[in-house]
Amino acid sequence: MNDFSELRKEVSSWINANWDPSLDLITWRKKLADSGWGAPDWPKEDFGMGLSPEESSIIEEEFSKKGVIGAAQSGVRLLAAVTILEHGTREQKDRYLKPILTGEENWCQLFSEPGSGSDLAGATTRADLIGDEWIINGQKVWNTSAHHADFGLLVARTNWDVPKHEGISYFIIDMRQKEVEVRQLRQMNGHASFNEVFFTDARVSRENILGTEGRGWQVAMTTLAYERRSFDRARRVSSDMAGDASIYREYEMELEKANEPYKWYPQRAGRGDLVLETAIETGAIENAAIRQEIARFHVLNESAKWTAARAKAAQKAGQPQGPEGSLGKLAASRVAQSAARVHTSIMGNGALLTGEGSLKDGILAEVLVSTPAISIAGGTDEIQKNIIAERVLGLPKEPRFDSGPFRDVQKNADKSST
Ligand SMILES: Cc1cc2nc3c(=O)[nH]c(=O)nc-3n(C[C@H](O)[C@H](O)[C@H](O)COP(=O)(O)OP(=O)(O)OC[C@H]3O[C@@H](n4cnc5c(N)ncnc54)[C@H](O)[C@@H]3O)c2cc1C
């Protein structure tokens, strides 16, 4: 079996020759991007080395062991990168990929609308080509991090006279223009990670379409497949290796800003790690019925981890996306719901308390109002079940009433389609 010792030696000697913590973060990351070691599984001509995901994770391990800061990974930027790598033109790759790796530019995903979330192909935000520019009008919603994004991945309608999946296109939009208005939304858990985004004659230059006109659905599938397969992650250098150099402070500040919209995500996942500890602290562990609930949660949680491990192994081996994405997403929802239920059984009304004196500083109350989000983000539970039923089990498709020209299809929010 390959232990990748040659690769480890190679990366180690590159690090010894090049890692310089006295550089500022962006200068270091530019060097990293140019070398290919920052994104080793990207193609050689696109700031990568054409290596496999497995080799890539070996390199990541070596970076981490030596306290070396890698390419920027947090936020929506990796969704942007995989989509541009697969569908972008040479010019788009040259323009956007490097600042993604250096962390100089932030991205957001502009898919959902008030009248079309699950039904992404029903988007009614419009893009009209006038001269050399696409003019964008409409509204998006639930757009994580749009309030500090430089660019957005935008799905908009370019043709109203063909079936809905054939009339949408995919754009890269500059979020810093004044014709794009971003309003933050406050959630029931108190955080404000989402936004509404309004476009009033916003502009996208003609060449900033990703893929071709009317093929936006296919491009969006690339983004969504990646989103379901890998939850947002931010790599940290191991703290015992992180030194005093100012590059580490810059990195920590970058992570803090980028991760701000995601800081409630552990609560969204149910905080199963607190179940046993709270049961012991409160004495609820003495109750046989609660012990059974805890055991049920444990079984669900462990089997979900194995499903995730299987998906990861398939990904590492370079296998195409299977049903694991939808199964894993559904399992994550079940685990979160089950954890929320057990927390409530253990704590009773106490699980609702926040503020001074509340057990676990109100974390459990935050769990209760955050777990519903995991059943919605990146495709709802019902949508994952539809995918599993139709594409994995081969069950008959749902009847459709929207196959004609989109102009004639009844819309969720019946805006004018002309
Ligand atoms: C944490 C989080 C982060 C998000 N980040 C972003 C982001 O960055 N960018 C972005 O564009 N969006 C984002 N979203 C929005 C998300 O993609 C949508 O909320 C999601 O796709 C569901 O759409 P909707 O809210 O319009 O619900 P709807 O589509 O209106 O669904 C309402 C209900 O109907 C059910 N339903 C709908 N269609 C069917 C069907 N065919 N069969 C059975 N049941 C059905 C759904 O399951 C749901 O229960 C985020 C959402 C969350 C919670």
Topology:
Blueprint: H1 5-18, H2 25-35, H3 53-65, H4 77-87, H5 90-102, E1 107-110, E2 126-130, E3 133-141, E4 151-157, E5 168-174, E6 180-185, E7 194-205, E8 209-210, H6 216-229, H7 246-259, H8 265-268, H9 275-282, H10 288-316, H11 324-347, H12 363-370, H13 381-392
Helix pairs in contact: 1-3, 2-5, 4-5, 4-6, 9-11, 10-11, 11-13
Residues 109-112, 117-119, 142-144, 373, 376-377, 379-380, 382-383, 386 line the site of flavin-adenine dinucleotide.
In words, what does this structure look like?
There is one protein chain. With 418 residues, the chain is of the alpha+beta class. The protein folds into three domains: 7-74 and 233-256, no CATH class; 107-229, Butyryl-CoA Dehydrogenase, subunit A, domain 2; 264-379, Butyryl-CoA Dehydrogenase, subunit A, domain 3, CATH 1.20.140. Helix content is 42%, strand content 12%. The protein has a four-stranded mixed beta sheet with strand order 1-4-5-8. A hairpin with an 8-residue loop joins strand 6 (180-185) and strand 7. Helix 4 packs antiparallel against helix 5, helix 10 runs antiparallel to helix 11 and helix 11 packs antiparallel against helix 13 (381-392). It is globular. The site of flavin-adenine dinucleotide has 18 residues, from strand 1 and helix 13.
